[in-house]
């Protein structure tokens, strides 16, 4: 069998395994009912697939016995864990990185990992779980302060006690899950994808993550302020809609669209003009 035929067969099997792993991960994420993670995972897999497709003809596909065994073991580990998954968000975030690392070792060995540094870096970012950031610090108090400030600007009689936003006819408590970390991570992920895939200067490398954090925090703060008003008005059904229903998706989708437009005009359009 010629070397060319072996390489073609290896490419086919690696592609088939990759497609199966991506499908499995997206399916499990969809079953977890974590919409933010599902949309973020889809974007990251799309970016990784695009990067790999561009360099498909220049990849060195040579792997040793140890590297192939280790890579296959990582993939098997992901598959076994997936069979016994019980809504583990941490696993859903880290499994894409483990899967890609296993595929890279299987296809190119330890020496060939440098070819995939961009893709591995992207999925390493995805592995940053929301809970890990909460261990560093909870921003709920800042979210509560911002939401109270928004209500005060709009003319509401509002007071603040810790993470409790108090209006004359009702109050809400801002939990860590409503602090905006999820939305901030989602926008940071989008910024990270652009920074990896598009050549940018130092100013934009600093500006994009900064805007992602500020926008995610502000949009979520407005959402919290709205929920406080709904509680004060005793609109429980409307509160549930904006809290856990489709209304929460409207805010996150709006934030992604606004940030996408910002990236288009500030980064992507600039790159096109320069080229």
Automatic annotation (TrEMBL):
Its EC number is 3.4.22.-. It comes from the Bacteria. It is a multi-pass membrane protein. Pfam families: Exosortase_EpsH (PF09721). It is found in: Cell membrane. One of its GO terms (molecular function) is hydrolase activity. Keywords: Cell membrane, Hydrolase, Membrane, Protease, Transmembrane, Transmembrane helix. The chain crosses the membrane at residues 12-30, 36-53, 65-84, 90-108, 120-143, 149-167, 174-198, 210-233, 245-267. It is an enzyme of class 3 (hydrolase). InterPro entries: Exo/Archaeosortase_dom, Exosortase, Exosortase_cyanobac. This is Cyanoexosortase A. It comes from Funiculus sociatus GB2-A5. The lineage of its organism: Bacteria, Bacillati, Cyanobacteriota, Cyanophyceae, Coleofasciculales.
